[in-house]
Every structure is written in C-alpha cells, then in structure tokens.
C-alpha cells in the first residue's frame, strides 16, 4: 500500500491546529516501521487541476499568501497522486495537509484552502477514467465544501455518517455502503477527530481499522479494488500515528 507524503508537509504553514508543529511526525514515524508501506513523494498540482474545482478569484485569493498557496498546491498534488494510483489498483493513503473538505468552489474555512478530494476526483473524471464515485467522509465535521462542489453529480455518492455511538456510526457506514452499489472508485475524506481522545470523543482505535476494512471490502466487490483516502482533520497529535496505522491496516 502507498503512503503519499512529502517532507514539506512537516512545515508549520499557518497557526491553525491542522498546521500545528508535531502533527505529521508521529504518523510518518509509525508507518515507517512497517515495510509493507511504500512512501511516494507527490508533485504540486497544476493550475488546470485547481480550475476544475475552484473559481479563478478563489485561487488568486490563496495565492496572496505564498507559504499557504505552495503547500496547498502540494497537498492537492498528493491527492491527485493517491487517486491516480488507486485507479491503477494500488490502495493509497494521502498523508497530506492542509486538509480540503471545507473548501468550496469560491470560498474556504476550517483550516482548508483547496478541496483535495474534489480536485483528485474531477481530474480522474476529466481524463475519462471514472464516471462515478463513492466518497466516505468520516471526519467529525461535515465536508460542506465537498458537498457544495460534488453533490450535483448524480453518480457521486457522499456519505457523512452521524451516529452518536461507535456501534451506530459503524452500522451507518455499513448500510450506506450497501445502498451505494457499484462505482468506479471509493475515496475517503479521512478525518480522525472522532477519535475517543480527540474533539469528537467517539471512535476507538479498532473502529478505524474496521472502517478501513469496510472500504477495502466495498472496493473489492463494487469498485474493482480501487480505493484511496486523504487526511482531513485529527488533532490528538500523539495518537495520530496509532489510529492512522489502524485505518491503513484495515484498508491495505
Ligand atoms: Zn474535522
């Protein structure tokens, strides 16, 4: 399984919790201990890739802060790399930041600048590789940006589980996947802020492994095995390595 990562993502590019120092290190430190993860460096996204998802004004607005623009472009490029490799049947996790699911066509908030998920899926679509997709957003917060950009597309199913207990939450994902049916690819907006020691206070380490496994099983029975996930939120910095590893162990 591929881990898409660039050392630039260690950089503290802003003062928000997603950009905090020490957030990425435990993830990479943990995953590097396992030889079955292949680390791949992404390239920055191209301007055309942004324009499928965002207005020229929005892109220009982000460009006004070059430190943020550069890293957001690299995160979008990481999402594209994960999506392309997933399409080629290599399960991939984009260990990227800044996150993207609160970025809409012409605006953004919540530590997000460009919508990495929409950018990666719309690129695959523009290349004629996919027509349909299932997006599972298991971040604590609803990915309003992704909904705003992609919900008009009938062949794109977006799942935002809301269950109040771990059991309800996992059952909701399972039912939603059953209902989703066949698609060309499945992708996760993988936020880890529902973790018991994070803001959401709900999901155990095992729950993340189960979510990864559900996605793997779904992709193998409904999407020709194509699957990828992109890091969104997750602020229990010291445990991020353990819970992302658990997810990847189910997902790989
Ligand atoms: Zn979140």
Q: How many helical stretches?
A: 9
> Which strand order does the major sheet show?
2-1-3-7-6-4-5
Radius of gyration: 16 Å
SSE order, as H and E? EHEHHHEHEHEHEHEH
Top CATH class: Alpha Beta
Query: Which structural class is indicated by helix and strand composition?
Result: alpha/beta
Q: Write out the distinct hetero groups bound to the structure.
A: zinc ion
Estimated share of beta-strand residues: 5-15%
Helix content: 40-55%
Q: Give a count of the beta strands, DSSP E runs of length 2 or more.
A: 7
How far is the first residue's CA from the last residue's CA? 6 Å
Uncertain runs are none
Whole-number mean pLDDT: 97
CATH superfamily: Histone deacetylase domain
Report on this structure.
The protein is an alpha/beta fold. The protein has a single domain, classed as Arginase, Chain A (3-Layer(aba) Sandwich), CATH 3.40.800.20. 42% of the residues lie in helices and 11% in strands. It contains nine helices and seven strands; from the N terminus they run βαβαααβαβαβαβαβα. Helix 1 packs across helix 9, helix 4 (66-87) crosses helix 5 (116-126) and helix 7 runs parallel beside helix 8. The longest helix is centred in the N-terminal third of the chain and has 22 residues, at 66-87. It is globular and about 45 Å long. Zinc ion is lined by residues 139-141, 191, 193, 232-233.
